């Protein structure tokens, strides 16, 4: 009832307006395949009465590099697994992924479920969701955690629907109720003003996505190892419906703000672009990156990619220095998980002081240079960043 | 090209005011708007229709007041609007919502075939980004999320090509039709309805479908059909009380020294 | 694939695009004045277009206030049966605040808890939205997010007639026989027609308001009313830091509206910001316990035109009428506004309905609006208080000294200390006259009586 009867695949290239794109392949059979014939998702039954067991973490990888959030999830997954007294497993999908398998154990997995198939490289929603759904149906995990990256969100919505289970996006806290084995998924609601704890009833796996940097990355344990359970994808390559033609990676000259260990951030209180330079100087002196509140970005003092907060990035550095930032809730949600927060603000009642580890009431324009000098000197002219490859 | 666009009416969170003193939400009188990403989805659908012909149908699931959003979509140029409203739909989570929307789209397809379904990348009130993928999964359609550009559409061969945002850049994907696409704001600029269209849209008779029209399985609707439920609401935890270092009465250099004493142990640590 | 016959609904679908874009009346602004006007027009069979710049009617006017029952009932009979209302007001109190104390006068009548009621606390965002639905049901066309920026004129040798409006949208011109300006305070359009000169800060007050959440029961206990009933308090004196203006507290269902209005020129003279004035009033020992434990949910500032009778512009011209705040129809002394707005909107609409019958929308026919206002309480009241604002503004002691004296006198009288009452009165009189001189007081009282009485 849905797809229209298609014309012959040999039809002349037509009606493309901006750019002529040839058909995906010239396999004539495919033209008669309706999109939804690939997997009859409607027929999938929720694993209602099956004994679900174990915590799974989806290990997101791109061209052989694992997204840091996957290891962060492995860290929190370990804690949950210990509480529930069940195994912690990783799920790794891709092609030529053998070299990555050890890492999963070193970051805390007991088992690794993996599928190595050329069709899984690169990521497509189609093949990866089928793969993950198949693994879940074969092994019935109790809990499935996925990083809330663009890929993770793309995947989790499809998988949860196919498995007819609940999914909670962007959790900031995870815990388990040991008695009824429920995953307590806490996420901000209404712009971070309240926290809602969400439960999933009678469906498995209980699925949650978590934003990067919400949890810290566990220590790597080089001595740990475990068993890899390999499976086959078993899809017919001629029947795929989508194909990645090209991947254009952003050029990044500097590191990712959300991976920085030290961030020095400035806000409207700095008053001018010139004063904002004081923030840059301090960041430079101590090997950190700059962050900014929204007004600072809107005034053109810092690029948008450095905005911290609800409509910017969530960061979790070891040290966050906030100068001339009032601490509006939209900013706080992006940085309040930092290990140490220093606030410099001339208003003693500024809300930023409520989250600050160390608060200094005073003028940022005079304090920043003094701090730059002191910290710069104490670190013997060898900024931490260079030593520690930030 | 027949296109359906799923719209959600949401409270305008950019107008959500926060009480500066208590940092709590002020909810009174917040206007409802069409979810901003959905407006871009609609705009993209209209652009494609204007180029390739066909019809654009907008659907929304919501209370009767959501008619306002549908009429607004009509004033922008949509051809047809359907409101899905039923007591039984209330309280649906993303799983149940995608079930209802997929059911309605299926019903629409009994009337006219669809080539594309557009959604916004996520709704600003819940930020879950799950309904679009959910509908695609229910219909068994290919899914392309975070689309920033539609490079081209070939209706004859039933393929199209898009660019989509990924964590580290973007990718170009070719996909067959029909498909479901979720869009980000960068994809286009929104049009502003001319006055005559706005006035006429005010008289648009929105088509209303209840579950009597859709005949969906009641156990999969609303609260009953929603596996997730809110167990507890709390306020964000306060951090431990901080320490106030020397205030404005101390020389900046002295303050800097005290601060450095505190910070050095935190920042001179081995790589984690 | 099954192909279905088109339904009636689908047939309608095809026809809606042919709706003609012809209107007899355009109403600018969907506040109380515009809603009342558009409703009356639509009910009277006039093809009406109502244009609002906000996202929805009431969106630019989110705060609570008092809605007067009588004028509303005249427009929509028995509105209380379905409109979103907060509490019917059964008690109105006036508080004269001095630094630490208060002298209170009140009037409570349980009869106000019965139909047709006296007045209600409401949230405009809800009430206006409800009323807008009524307007649409009555047959008017409502469009939002559209700003009227100018007029279309028909120029003839003998006269210039308003013939429609220009909006900020593409193809944004639309014609009608008559335009009703219901734009609210500081109406640009009225000025555009040259009917109103620029307003001075002495004609405008600024109102700031907060909504504070409290449990229903706490509200009823603290204001000493029965379940579901409401009370209002008007505060003068210390409430405005001695400036010309007034403070108020209204009870809603589970919130309080608290606010102050102060003349702009006085504020700028004192260098104070209106938030500070409100903040100080909230800290007053008589006020604080009413609010204790409450959480601020909303904050709003808005202009109130208080120029009074002398600043009322010419209310009509060829093809145009002006209503509500746009016409300065605000009673600063009783701080009534929405009732004047609604009634003026209704009277303007009735005038238009008659003009339509006559087929003449020139100022000759539209002048009847002015006469109707003159016969109504609106201009009568405004005339009565025509000098009030000037008097009160030029005599700051009404807001500074008298509340203090009232407090002093009351305290003396109510303190039980075995001093004979007669002696007390003497003492009070002595205190009072020593502070402002007996003749001055007599003069003040006389002037106040002449202007307000
Ligand atoms: C939907 C929405 C999303 C948002 N998203 C974000 C977001 O992602 N990130 C974000 O940051 N904001 C965001 N905001 C904006 C947010 O609400 C605040 O407006 C913003 O964070 C305030 O930035 P600020 O602290 O730099 O400026 P202000 O609030 O103006 O604070 C300036 C501070 O500097 C202090 N100060 C002034 N002079 C000095 C001086 N000489 N020395 C020291 N201190 C001084 C002042 O006391 C004040 O506390 C969002 C808002 C909305 C509504
Ligand atoms: C703080 C405060 C408290 C008050 N409390 C009370 C009270 O308790 N009781 C009471 O009776 N009165 C009260 N008033 C007065 C009352 O609010 C006004 O008198 C009343 O709202 C006037 O109605 P209106 O329709 O003339 O104007 P408004 O309510 O101002 O409505 C005008 C409408 O026109 C729209 N508009 C303006 N310009 C344009 C344009 N160019 N194009 C399209 N649309 C436009 C606006 O968005 C608005 O919706 C209070 C006023 C204030 C400021």
TrEMBL record, chain B:
Limits of the Electron transfer flavoprotein alpha/beta-subunit N-terminal domain: 22-218
SMART domains membership: ETF
Gene Ontology terms, MF aspect: electron transfer activity
InterPro entries: ETF_a/b_N, ETF_b, ETF_beta_N, Rossmann-like_a/b/a_fold
Entry-linked Gene3D superfamilies: HUPs
Name of the protein in its database record: Electron transfer flavoprotein small subunit
Species of origin: Heliobacterium mobile (Heliobacillus mobilis)
UniProtKB/TrEMBL annotation, chain C:
TM helices/strands, residue ranges: none
Keyword entries, A-Z: FAD, Flavoprotein, Oxidoreductase
Cofactor names: FAD
InterPro entries: FAD/NAD-bd_sf, FixC-like, FixC-like_C
Keyword Lyase recorded: no
One Gene Ontology MF term: oxidoreductase activity
Location of the FixC-like C-terminal domain: 389-451
SUPFAM superfamilies per record: FAD-linked reductases, C-terminal domain, FAD/NAD(P)-binding domain
Family: Belongs to the ETF-QO/FixC family.
Entries under PANTHER family matching the protein: ELECTRON TRANSFER FLAVOPROTEIN-QUINONE OXIDOREDUCTASE YDIS-RELATED (PTHR43624:SF2)
Protein name: FAD-dependent oxidoreductase
Organism, scientific name: Heliobacterium mobile
Higher taxonomy: Bacteria, Bacillati, Bacillota, Clostridia, Eubacteriales
């Amino acid at each position: 009832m849905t797809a229209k009867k298609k014309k012959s695949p040999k039809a002349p290239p037509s009606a493309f307006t901006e750019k002529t794109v040839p058909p995906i392949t010239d396999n004539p059979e495919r033209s008669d395949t309706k999109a939804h014939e690939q997997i009859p998702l409607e027929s999938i039954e929720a694993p209602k009465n099956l004994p679900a067991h174990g915590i799974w973490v989806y290990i997101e990888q791109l061209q052989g590099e694992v997204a840091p959030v996957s290891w962060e999830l492995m860290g929190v997954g370990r804690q949950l697994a210990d509480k529930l007294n069940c195994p912690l497993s990783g799920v790794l999908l891709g092609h030529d992924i053998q070299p990555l398998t050890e890492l999963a154990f070193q970051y805390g997995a007991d088992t690794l479920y993996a599928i190595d198939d050329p069709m899984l490289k690169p990521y497509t929603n189609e093949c990866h969701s089928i793969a993950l759904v198949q693994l879940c149906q074969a092994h019935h995990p109790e809990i499935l955690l996925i990083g809330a990256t663009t890929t993770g969100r793309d995947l989790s919505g499809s998988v949860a629907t196919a498995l007819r289970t609940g999914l909670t996006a962007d959790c900031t806290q995870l815990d388990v109720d040991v008695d009824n084995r429920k995953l307590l998924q806490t996420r901000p609601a209404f712009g971070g003003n309240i926290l809602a704890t969400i439960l999933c009833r009678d469906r498995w796996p209980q699925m949650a996505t978590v934003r990067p940097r919400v949890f810290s990355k566990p220590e790597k344990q080089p001595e740990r190892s475990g068993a890899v359970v390999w499976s086959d994808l078993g899809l017919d390559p001629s029947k795929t419906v989508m194909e990645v033609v090209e991947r254009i990676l952003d050029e990044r000259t500097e590191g990712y703000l959300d991976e920085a260990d030290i961030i020095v951030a400035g806000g409207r209180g700095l008053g001018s672009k010139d004063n904002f330079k004081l923030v840059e100087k301090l960041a430079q002196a101590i090997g950190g990156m700059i962050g900014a509140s929204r007004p600072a970005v809107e005034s053109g003092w810092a690029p948008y990619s450095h905005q911290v907060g609800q409509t910017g990035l969530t960061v979790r550095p070891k040290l966050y220095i906030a100068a001339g930032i009032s601490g509006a809730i939209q900013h706080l949600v992006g940085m309040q998980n930092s290990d140490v927060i220093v606030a410099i603000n001339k208003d003693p009642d500024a809300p930023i002081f409520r989250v600050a580890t160390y608060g200094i009431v005073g003028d940022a324009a005079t304090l920043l240079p003094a701090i730059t000098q002191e910290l710069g000197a104490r670190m013997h002219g060898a900024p931490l960043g260079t030593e520690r490859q930030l | 090209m027949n296109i359906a666009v799923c719209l959600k009416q949401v409270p305008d969170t950019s107008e959500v005011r926060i009480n500066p003193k208590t940092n709590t939400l002020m909810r009174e009188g917040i206007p409802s708007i069409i979810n901003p990403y959905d407006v871009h989805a609609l705009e993209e659908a209209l652009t494609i229709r204007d180029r390739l012909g066909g019809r654009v149908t907008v659907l929304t699931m919501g209370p009767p007041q959501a008619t306002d959003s549908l009429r607004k979509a009509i004033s922008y140029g949509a051809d047809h609007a359907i409101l899905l409203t039923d007591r039984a739909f209330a309280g649906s989570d993303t799983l149940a919502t995608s079930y209802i929307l997929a059911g309605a789209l299926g019903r629409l397809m009994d009337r006219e075939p669809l080539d594309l379904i557009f959604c916004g990348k996520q709704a600003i009130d819940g930020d879950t980004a799950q309904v679009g993928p959910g509908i695609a999964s229910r219909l068994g359609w290919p899914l392309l999320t975070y689309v920033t550009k539609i490079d081209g559409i070939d209706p004859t061969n039933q393929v199209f090509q898009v660019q989509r945002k990924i964590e580290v850049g973007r990718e170009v994907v070719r996909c067959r039709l029909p498909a479901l696409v979720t869009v980000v704001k960068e994809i286009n600029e929104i049009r502003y309805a001319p006055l005559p269209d706005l006035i006429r849209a005010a008289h648009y008779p929105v088509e209303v479908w209840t579950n009597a029209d859709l005949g969906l399985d009641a156990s999969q609707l609303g609260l009953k059909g929603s596996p997730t439920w809110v167990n507890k609401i709390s306020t964000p935890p306060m951090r431990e009380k901080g320490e106030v270092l020397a205030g404005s009465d101390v020389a900046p250099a002295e303050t800097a020294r005290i601060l450095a004493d505190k910070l050095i142990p935190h920042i001179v640590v081995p790589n984690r | 694939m099954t192909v279905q016959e088109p339904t009636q609904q689908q047939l309608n679908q095809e026809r809606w695009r042919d709706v003609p874009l012809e209107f007899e009346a355009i109403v600018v602004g969907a506040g109380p004045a515009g809603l009342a006007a558009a409703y009356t027009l639509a009910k009277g069979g006039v093809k009406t277009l109502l244009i609002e710049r906000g996202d929805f009617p009431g969106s630019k006017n989110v705060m609570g206030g008092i809605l007067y029952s009588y004028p509303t009932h005249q427009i929509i009979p028995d509105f209380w049966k379905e409109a979103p209302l907060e509490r019917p007001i059964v008690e109105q109190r006036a508080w004269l605040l001095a630094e630490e104390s208060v002298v209170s006068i009140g009037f409570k009548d349980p009869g106000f808890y019965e139909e047709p009621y006296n007045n209600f606390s409401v949230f405009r965002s809800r009430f206006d939205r409800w009323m807008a639905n009524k307007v649409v049901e009555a047959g008017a066309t409502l469009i939002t997010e559209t700003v009227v920026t100018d007029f279309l004129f028909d120029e003839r040798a003998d006269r210039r007639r308003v013939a429609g409006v220009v909006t900020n949208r593409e193809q944004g011109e639309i014609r009608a026989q008559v335009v009703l300006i219901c734009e609210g305070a500081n109406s640009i359009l009225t000025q555009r027609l040259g009917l109103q000169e620029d307003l001075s800060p002495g004609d405008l007050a600024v109102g700031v308001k907060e909504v504070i959440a409290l449990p229903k029961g706490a509200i009823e206990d603290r204001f000493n009313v029965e379940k579901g009933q409401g009370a209002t308090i008007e505060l003068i004196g210390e409430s405005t830091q001695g400036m010309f203006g007034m403070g108020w507290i209204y009870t809603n269902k589970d919130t309080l509206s608290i606010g102050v209005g102060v003349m702009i020129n006085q504020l700028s003279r004192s260098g104070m910001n209106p938030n500070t004035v409100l903040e100080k009033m909230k800290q007053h020992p008589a006020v604080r316990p009413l609010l204790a434990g409450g959480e601020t949910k909303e904050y709003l500032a808005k202009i109130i035109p208080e120029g009074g009778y002398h600043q009322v512009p010419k209310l009509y011209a060829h093809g145009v009428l002006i209503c509500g705040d746009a016409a300065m129809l605000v009673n600063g002394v009783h701080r009534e506004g929405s009732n004047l707005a609604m009634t003026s909107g209704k009277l303007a609409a009735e005038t238009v309905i008659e003009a339509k019958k006559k087929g003449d929308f020139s100022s000759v026919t539209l002048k009847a609006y002015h006469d109707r206002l003159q016969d109504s309480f609106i201009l009568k009241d405004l005339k009565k208080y025509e000098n009030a604002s000037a008097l009160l503004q030029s005599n700051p002691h009404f807001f500074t000294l008298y509340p203090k004296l009232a407090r002093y006198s009351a305290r003396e009288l109510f303190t039980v200390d075995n001093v004979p009452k007669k002696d007390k009165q003497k003492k009070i009189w002595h205190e009072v006259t020593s502070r402002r001189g007996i003749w001055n007081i007599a003069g003040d009282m006389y002037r106040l009586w002449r202007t307000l009485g």
